[in-house]
Amino acid sequence: MRTGVARGHGASALPARTVSDREEETVSPVRTGATPLRVVLSLLLAGVFAALTIAPAQAAAYRYWGFYQLSDGAWAFAQKGSDQTVPADGAVEGWRFAVGDEQSTRFPRAVLTFDQLCGATPSAAGQKRVGLVVDYGRPVDSADGATPPAPTALCASVPTAATSTDVLATAGALRTEKGLVCAVAGYPATGCGGEVKEVSAEAQAADTPITIAAPADATKTPAAAATPISAQPAAQNTATSAGTVTAYVVAALAVLALIAYLVLRSRRRAGTPS
Question: Domain boundaries in the chain?
């Protein structure tokens, strides 16, 4: 029987502390004050587990032909598929075979202008001129380390209604599946946009700029066609790295909060009479 109830019936006084530990957790002002800390700690730990589970995960990588368009002197990822794109006369398009994911884009390793590609190609009625750069990538980009064909550049003279797929076909026979370009001029021999489970360190390395010669008849000075042009290096998993750092910062804060909570709880218990 609790102290207050016993005194109400004239019984002798009992020791002041007879409330059970479970009841004290409910009515004690000292322990009630710890509840917000527990809530915060729970949220922090939930954030740690979520961050550590999601952040370090690598984005899926694929081995595929990427389609790009020249804009303001730089390659930009095409917003539509090649079979849905109808380039205008004077456009320049590029293709690159490589391993890539959401955080790393592999552009063609050289930039050539329309004048370099089509400067010596006259216009014709019912036809349009589209500059084309095809970069078959590096041996480390292939599935079996095969040596890819040398990159090529040309001026495609095609009907005005031709799509970008039609333009690419001027570089060689295409192998396609469901609108996806799988091979250009027989490369690669097999596969089509397959997922890459593990990307080697060599394949992740930044591109080295190369020179792609323009068509021989595109300039009056053949030597000028081989002018080196800087490639655009691919970004390598910067988002993943940032996410990993954030996860460990959150984890460190949660550990500190847990230590503080345990110390505070220990002190409160030590200061509470038994």
Answer: 15-55+240-271, 61-235
